[in-house]
């Protein structure tokens, strides 16, 4: 493929003597005001192979995603500033159908350029870091992908077994900038990167006995003294980790706030949470976080959404003092590529850059062909509009396919006589993905794009052995998605805890149970037991009889959950099968075998009914009105904001 033209790197040159030579001679020794310099830092994060503004699941353009659109804002932001540097904060090699096409259909060999890397190479990235999803396809795939990047990538807390970091932990850049008086100065810019250490759980099959991941803060404490010896004027942490409060215990997944306490770090670029900082309500009230100014313990910080939805803009004011340059003021302003009007319409705020689109044109078109390949048919619509309040056909299909896959495999093992259950979650159920982030497949032909719409992630099948007691705890953790409802209140109460990811709302098929949301959640958002006397899961039964705590079951799940993802109690107890197949491919095979599926939920779980006077609401898509399941008592009651419709339970 011909390389597309590159955007100009405005005075952002690689390290080397050429930059030093470009600096002007020192000013006369006469007394003068300190030199002042403005530097604009730009950030992308969690791009997840979203280059083209296109939804491969809906097979339609999408103005809310895509680096091609983000690039338009980058170009404009660079043009406004004398000095700018662009960084990426990880999770770029996995996450869209384009990424899956490359990983599973086309392949990526040594010397080939991944389309995401091709697109990023067309932008003036100074440096990047790794996200946890970079490891989803294995270390060989990662190595091939990074090899063609034309900008360095750093990560300080992943080490190779046997010694040394997987990639360079940090790098120093000598950069020439122009101050407010027009004089040029050379600054040493240090960049250090971090990834959640939980990669060792989430991608154990790829990483075990090959690499180790250490605590983010401990890794920073190890390498910052080295960085200091390079005499940086500014040290930037590319922290693919989110912002969370509370006492530091070590090994945090979201450690950016703890990292900000360390001397030697001046700016923190965050990611991973798919939120916008400053601004997202999730960050209100956290000690040490200024959600208006955009700072962590007083240091400038940013988190610019996901899938290219925003660029992070951090405008720093630097002053040259004895001992180097210091930040005297800053402004943080994440800019979106779209806005949503009160009537739920999407208004683009950026145009797609042709130069970026050109880098992935062939792979984009090949992905469309791949996603449109037929696999079978469905006799009824498959939706997830009500998946958080009632048993759901989109989850049922996955559960049925996983059991059909695992049963013949386990019949050949010592566990052949144990009951087989299946755990699945509603991956697309609104939330941070917005009102369009739902599964909505009409009756009729099914293509690969539809299956990918049902099962988003490239997980592999695993089977774990649990006791009845562990099964109960698994479901209690899952029930943490619900807020506690007070039946004595008459005012509106939201049912869904928006801080709880829907992919952690496991529904376990093969048993029946009800969820009592008037009880407190037994576990907090991090999976810590906080209410040992609380029980939301009631009437848990197998084949019509109460589940014996000592009984043993097999649960078909995925590698993320089986390796501890989501901090579910008991899931890592005993893994009895690590299958080579993707959960998504298992669903494809199930549909191919059935030819026509009947996506009907079996109703094995439900919420304990609430009194009629209790006003409990939940958000869903405006398109949900014609898809409400039979028997579900819920009515549309207005606008939930941000494009969602509001429904009330009961009535």
Automatic annotation (TrEMBL):
* Catalytic reaction list: a nucleoside 2',3'-cyclic phosphate + H2O = a nucleoside 3'-phosphate + H(+); a ribonucleoside 3'-phosphate + H2O = a ribonucleoside + phosphate
The UniProt entry's coiled-coil ranges are none
Main localisation: other
Location in the cell reads:
Cell envelope
UniProt cross-references to SUPFAM superfamilies, sorted A to Z: 5'-nucleotidase (syn. UDP-sugar hydrolase), C-terminal domain (SSF55816), Metallo-dependent phosphatases (SSF56300)
Residues in 5'-Nucleotidase C-terminal domain copies: 384-569
Q: Mind telling me which Pfam families this protein's record contains?
A: 5_nucleotid_C, Metallophos
Task: Tell me which cofactor or cofactors this protein depends on.
Answer: a divalent metal cation
Looking up PROSITE patterns in the UniProt record yields: 5_NUCLEOTIDASE_2, TAT
- The reply to whether Metal-binding figures as a keyword in the UniProt entry is yes
InterPro entries to which the protein is assigned, alphabetical: 5'-Nucleotdase_C, 5'-Nucleotdase_C_sf, 5'-Nucleotdase_CS, 5_nucleotidase/apyrase, Calcineurin-like_PHP, CpdB_N, Metallo-depent_PP-like, TAT_signal
Give residue ranges for domain Calcineurin-like phosphoesterase. 40-274
Supply the alphabetized keyword list: Hydrolase, Metal-binding, Multifunctional enzyme, Nucleotide-binding, Signal
Gene3D superfamilies linked: 3.60.21.10, 5'-Nucleotidase, C-terminal domain
The record's listing under PANTHER family reads:
2',3'-CYCLIC-NUCLEOTIDE 2'-PHOSPHODIESTERASE_3'-NUCLEOTIDASE, 5'-NUCLEOTIDASE-RELATED
For this chain, the family text in UniProt reads: Belongs to the 5'-nucleotidase family.
The name this protein carries in UniProt is Bifunctional 2',3'-cyclic-nucleotide 2'-phosphodiesterase/3'-nucleotidase
């Amino acid at each position: 493929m011909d390389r597309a033209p590159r955007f100009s790197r405005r005075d952002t040159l690689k390290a080397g003597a050429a930059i030093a030579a470009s600096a002007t001679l020192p000013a006369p020794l006469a007394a003068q005001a300190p030199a002042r310099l403005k530097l604009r830092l730009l950030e992308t994060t969690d791009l997840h192979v979203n280059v083209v503004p296109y939804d491969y699941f809906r097979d339609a353009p999408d103005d809310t995603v895509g680096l091609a659109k983000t690039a338009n804002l980058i170009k404009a932001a660079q043009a406004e500033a004398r000095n700018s540097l662009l960084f990426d904060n990880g999770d770029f090699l996995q996450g869209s159908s384009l990424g899956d096409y490359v990983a599973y259909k086309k392949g990526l060999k040594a010397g080939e350029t991944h389309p995401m890397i091709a697109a990023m190479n067309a932008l003036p990235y100074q440096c990047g870091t790794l996200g946890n999803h970079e490891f989803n396809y294995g270390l060989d795939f990662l190595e091939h992908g990074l090899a063609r990047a034309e900008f360095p990538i750093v990560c300080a807390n992943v080490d190779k077994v046997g010694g040394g970091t997987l990639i360079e932990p940090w790098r120093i850049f000598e950069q020439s900038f122009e101050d407010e008086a027009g004089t040029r100065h050379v600054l040493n810019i240090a960049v250090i990167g971090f990834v959640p250490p939980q990669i060792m759980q989430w991608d154990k099959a790829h990483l075990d006995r090959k690499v180790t991941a250490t605590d983010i803060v401990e890794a920073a404490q190890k390498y910052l003294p080295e960085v200091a010896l390079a005499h940086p004027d500014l040290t930037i942490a590319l922290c693919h980790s989110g912002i969370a409060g509370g006492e530091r215990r070590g090994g945090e997944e979201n450690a950016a706030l703890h990292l900000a306490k360390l001397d030697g770090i001046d700016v923190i670029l965050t990611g991973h949470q798919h939120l916008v900082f400053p601004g997202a309500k999730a960050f209100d009230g956290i000690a040490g976080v200024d959600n208006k100014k955009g700072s962590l313990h007083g240091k400038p910080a940013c988190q610019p959404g996901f899938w290219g939805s925003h660029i992070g803009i951090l405008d720093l004011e630097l002053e040259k003092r004895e001992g180097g340059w210091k930040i005297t003021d800053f402004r943080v302003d994440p800019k979106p590529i779209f806005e949503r009007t009160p009537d739920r319409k999407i208004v683009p705020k950026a145009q797609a850059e042709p130069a970026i689109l050109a880098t992935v044109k062939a792979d984009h078109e090949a992905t469309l062909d791949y996603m449109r390949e037929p696999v079978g048919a469905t006799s009824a619509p498959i939706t997830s509009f009500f998946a958080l309040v009632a048993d759901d056909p989109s989850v049922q299909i996955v559960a049925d396919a996983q059991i059909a896959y695992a049963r013949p495999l386990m019949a050949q093992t010592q566990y052949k006589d144990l009951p087989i259950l299946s755990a699945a979650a509603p991956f697309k159920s609104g939330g941070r993905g917005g009102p369009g982030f739902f599964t909505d497949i009409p009756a009729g032909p099914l293509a690969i794009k539809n299956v990918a719409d049902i099962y988003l992630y490239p997980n592999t099948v695993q089977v774990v052995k649990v006791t009845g007691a562990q099964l109960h705890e698994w479901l209690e953790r899952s029930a943490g998605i619900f807020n506690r409802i007070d039946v004595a209140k008459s005012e509106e109460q939201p049912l869904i805890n928006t801080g709880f990811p829907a992919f952690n709302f496991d529904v376990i098929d093969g048993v029946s149970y009800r969820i009592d949301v008037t009880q407190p959640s037994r576990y907090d958002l991090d999976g810590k037991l906080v209410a040992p006397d609380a029980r939301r899961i009631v009437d848990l039964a197998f084949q019509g009889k109460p589940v014996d705590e000592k009984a043993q079951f097999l649960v078909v799940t995925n590698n993320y959950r089986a390796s501890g993802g989501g901090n579910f109690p008991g899931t890592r107890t005993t893994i009895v099968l690590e299958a080579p197949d993707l959960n998504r491919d298992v669903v494809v095979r199930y549909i191919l075998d059935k030819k026509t599926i009947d996506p009907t939920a079996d109703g094995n779980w439900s919420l304990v009914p609430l009194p009629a006077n209790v006003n409990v609401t939940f958000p869903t898509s405006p398109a949900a009105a014609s898809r409400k399941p039979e028997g579900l008592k819920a009515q549309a009651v207005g606008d939930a904001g941000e494009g969602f419709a509001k429904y009330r339970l009961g009535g």
